[in-house]
Amino acid sequence: MNRPYVICHMTLSLDGKVTGEHLVRSNHSPASDVYYEINRNYKADAYACGRVTMEGSFTGGWYPDLSEFEPAHSPMDYLVDEVTGFYAVAFDSHGRLGWKSDRIIDVDKDPGYDKAQIIEVLTHDVDLRYLTYLQSMEIPYIFAGDTEIDVEEALFKLKAYFGIKALLLEGGSILNGAFQRAGVIDELSLVVDPVIGGEGKPLCMDSKVEEYRLVDVKNHDGILWLNYKK
């Protein structure tokens, strides 16, 4: 396989919502604990999130002053000499994420996230000054697509450049949908929180019909883990 094996690992409500108020209620903690434990157990080479998820979980909305940077000479993939072998892949089409380190700083020091080396996946619709900023932070970046992310190209480069063999796709809904439409989700790892979510986004936005087979079910005190493969 010329791309990583992709596992979509998500928490969702009984009505299939991956966003919404149900995620911030006090009773959500047990489902989160199960989710993070499974994340660590997978021991994947990388985890991938979209811009909104990365912003909510790690960057907090901070963004650099790009007026301090000169435009990069050309929009070419940028790699660094020293790599960790454990990566946080940010699908950031237009370069909207602001990082203060080249590694993820997780407040809980969770080994499934903390100290992962950041990789930015961009389109060519990006401010060239943002590339200079990433270079100043020694954050590697790759291009995949002109204005929208080409998922297959991105995955090919992630394996070819960084040796990523197993990748946890951790959302959100828009990024999951892009992967699903590209037909590259090999496995589903779904932690079902026993709550009706109400308003919120589905597991995969703008999805297509695709069949999976159930290979495992575990009951964690009423919180189900459902594991499906193609």
Specify the helix fraction band.
10-25%
Give average pLDDT, whole number.
96
How many angstroms does the end-to-end distance come to?
Answer: 15 Å
Number of helices: 5
Low-confidence stretches: none
- Main sheet: which strands, in order across? 5-4-3-2-6-1-7-9-8
* Overall 3D form: globular
Radius of gyration, whole Å: 17 Å
Largest sheet: 9 strands, mixed
Description:
The structure is a single chain. The chain has helices spanning 29-42, 51-59, 128-136, 151-162, 173-181; strands spanning 5-13, 46-50, 87-91, 117-122, 141-143, 166-169, 187-193, 213-220, 223-229. The protein has 5 helices and 9 strands. It is globular and about 55 Å long. By secondary structure, the chain is α/β, with parallel strands linked by helices. Strands 5-4-3-2-6-1-7-9-8 form a 9-stranded mixed β-sheet, with helices on both faces.
